[in-house]
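Practice set, problem 2.
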Amino acid sequence: MWDLKCCPIIMITTMSMTLLTMSVVIMIEDFILKALIMGLVFSCLAGPLGSVMVWRRLAFFGDTISHSALLGLGLSLIWQLPSQLILSLFCVGLAIILTLIPFRSKVSIDSILAIFSHGSLALGLVVLALMDRPPLSLTGFLFGDILALTWEDIIITALTALGVGALTTLFWRSLLTTFISEELAKSEGVPTLAIKVGFAIALGLTIGLLLQTVGALLMTAMLIIPASCARYLSRSPAQMVIIAIGVGALSFVTGLWSSYILDTPTAPMIVVSALGFFILSRLAYFVKR
């Protein structure tokens, strides 16, 4: 069950996020408003997924899928198929493969992730280089274009967040038991392999649907950094998820605001904001100890 006890950190984060959101909404233009809404919705999606990735030390798992997605995107352009569909299928398929491979491999998981990440990224670059006029630059792939969002992008993200949130709530106990102690989960009759594959599908679908919008850098950073911040500030897994959502949302708000004021690139500024919150959470952890 979810532990929904409020803590001061969550309240402060929520109040700060709300005040910043109100101040930004009053004076920003439409394209920044869309980016802000996307950031808040994406944070609700990244909180649960990122927390599980931090628990299981799967930071490079998301990185591998994001980098490998360049190959799927290149293939969709060559075959002239819908890029969103092919990219989503590619990421989901790769996530399932990476989940199942360790069961039958003598190679360590970090080596497998490195092989897939660098190999697929290189193949993707080769595929794009073979095109006369590739419609995608490496910069666009890494950083996306969060200021060029459409309402359709936001709706897709919101629906994905609702689906992931509903499934996380429904299978919370099984998910928690599986990723904290797989032996205990098996003894309780939890289908651990199905839980792992389900998580892989959710993560792959999220990356596939949003990669072209937010970019590979922002995608992996906002999955891992807010959850890592929450690890220092939380006392239970449920609190960690809630705080990760709050830190992610606050990072988007402050990053967009700073980018707007300083006229700097948006996606890197959001990541820098998240990094700042991580440093603060680390300091708070040491002070508390």
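Problem 2, part (b): a different protein.
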Amino acid sequence: MAPALAVVHGVTPLAESLTGFGVGVTIAVPLLIGLGYAGHKAAPIGLLGLCAVPWGSMGPGTLIAAELSGTGFRELGVMSALLSLPVFLGAGVAAALIAAERGDRARAVGLAVASGLVLWVSVTVANLVFGTAPAGAVGAAVTLAVHLLAHRLRHGRRLAVSAAELRALAPYGLLLGGVLAASVTVRVLGLDGTGWRYLASPAPWLVLTALFTLRSSLADVAPTASHAVRTWAHVGPATALFILLGAVMSESGMSGQIAVALAGLGGVFLFFVPVLGGVGGFITGSNSGANAMFAGPQAQAAAALGASVASATAAQNVSASLLTMSSPARIELAVRLCPDPPARRPVFVWTLGMAIPVILALSVLTVVLVG
């Protein structure tokens, strides 16, 4: 049971925060298969690890929502972290129910709640200390470290890591370590309002990480670039088009008209903020795309009602991110990674069955916090 929770709250969020586009699932599902889980369990558990998508790829989707709503990036990151508590708990509990045997489910649910709380506290504190971009990766890394420590205390032995495995992890260490070091340096030196703040952005560190990874042989550059382009082609154009659609909606005045219609619902609208966000995440399979389309109208409607724009935007961000795990593209990805591909419907039912009560919880929280 513990390994499954380590994947859901540690491995997958860490990989997704550093890469994005569902790459965390491509790591989680084979790992779960290797741990002995059959495909009908590995696929939904792997998808449940997409519980920290607001920080996926170091937060471009959250940044889009912040820009469209006029909310500070750090402020939106902190608020999104606070609202993610039911998401982390729901993902863990669902994974426990899938992985545990019937007689061990009560204990498994208890472990899931504890693991979810560790991730929630870690991500929230990381947002406050280091900023939003690296917060998901830091929180997931801390949670994974807690799981590894618990494993050592239970079994009395440490996990052996080979030199080859350390070399494979080095690029991720450079990326995360560079962003963290730059973020702390910029803040300590009071350079937040200057051009030096861009050093704390993931962008330059991604370039340095790519160069570091390819340093061993120039012969690797061409095939790696070709593979990267082919991989990007599966997700990049669709995401870019959704973002373009969001820009068109904003510039054409469509977002404003949607906001007027939503505000016309009165206080009832606040309950449906996470619902609309979730629909956007399900349709696009991307929190960047969903936020590009709906973060602006949701924020404008909240402002028209005199409600908290930051809280409403965070609810949009978290709910849109949550439903990406149930999108057809993510379901197909998880199923195809299994040597014994399970039926798609049960995998979809597990992810959506977890998401619906979480969305309802987010709706209640939104009414309380935003109103």
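Answer key, part (b): Residues 2-370 form one domain. The longest helix spans residues 221-252.
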